[in-house]
Write a structure and sequence with these properties.
Residues 1-22 form the signal peptide. The protein has 232 residues and is mainly beta. The protein has a single domain, classed as Lipocalin (Beta Barrel). 9% of the residues lie in helices and 64% in strands. It contains one helix and 17 strands. It has a ten-stranded antiparallel beta barrel. A hairpin with a 6-residue loop joins strand 16 (195-208) and strand 17. The longest helix is centred in the N-terminal third of the chain and has 20 residues, at 2-21. The chain is elongated. The two termini are 24 Å apart. The model is unreliable at 4-23 (pLDDT under 50).
Length: 232
């Protein structure tokens, strides 16, 4: 259902914002990221959590960013992220890790040209998942973690190539998140109303939950990704 909502918003952006791209007044960026993530770490009740072996599962993130020309109002980016894995055990016991979440990001464009882009702002990641271990313990997650947000990008004019680093760099709470990615991007087509780019990169995600519904965690997801971006 959440993917249908993002797709609907993306379709609305295409119909409403495409003419504005030619006027450089308004921009809509839609992106799909497919992440080949390796999962490590552990979790449990109380601070005495256990480390586990996990299946390495591919993860999907969809995002939509809206840029506008009003200086005092922040731009907005929304994301929905699948983040799931199964525990691997030798005795056949079951366990599940679901840290899927949605993010809302408010940021200002401090620099935005063909050579350098710089964004800075704040974000909130809303977790609504489920975690269980091999002992029959289970936790329903319903937690929002605020973070700082930044993105820096550099471009190589006349080549279609650019690079960026994006991250949620600081958790403003007892629980903490590190969500950092770097990528090389190539513009595959560019028209007056629409351009599209592919990205190859690497992403690292660490989540430490501190007594969230009685759960303590220290889990890492990391690995390469491929993404496709449309700019209307």
């Amino acid at each position: 259902m959440k993917y249908a909502l993002v797709a609907s918003a993306l379709a609305l952006g295409l119909t409403t914002a495409a003419p504005a791209k030619a006027d450089i007044l308004f921009g809509v960026y839609g992106e799909a990221q497919y992440w080949f993530a390796e999962t490590t770490g552990g979790y449990g009740a109380g601070e005495n959590f256990s480390n586990f072996n996990f299946d390495d599962e591919n993860q999907l993130r969809l995002s939509l960013a809206l840029h506008h020309p009003v200086p005092l109002l922040p731009n907005i980016r929304i994301e929905t992220q699948d983040l799931k894995s199964q525990l691997v055990t030798s005795n056949g016991s079951q366990g599940e890790l679901d840290l899927s979440h949605d993010s809302a990001i408010l940021y200002y464009t401090l620099l935005d040209n063909t050579l350098v882009r710089l964004h800075a702002g704040v974000a909130a990641k809303r977790f609504n998942g489920y975690v269980s271990d091999t002992q029959g313990n289970a936790w329903n997650l319903n937690e929002t973690i605020p973070t700082a947000y930044a993105m820096v990008g550099v471009g190589l004019p006349f080549t279609g190539l650019s690079a960026h680093a994006r991250g949620h760099l600081l958790a403003i709470d007892s629980s903490s998140i590190q969500d950092v990615e770097v990528a090389l991007q190539y513009r595959v087509f560019d028209t007056a109303l629409l351009d599209g780019s592919v990205q190859l990169g690497y992403r690292y995600f660490n989540v430490e939950l501190d007594d969230v519904a009685g759960l303590y965690s220290d889990v890492e997801f990391k690995g390469p990704f491929v993404a496709f971006q449309l700019h209307f």
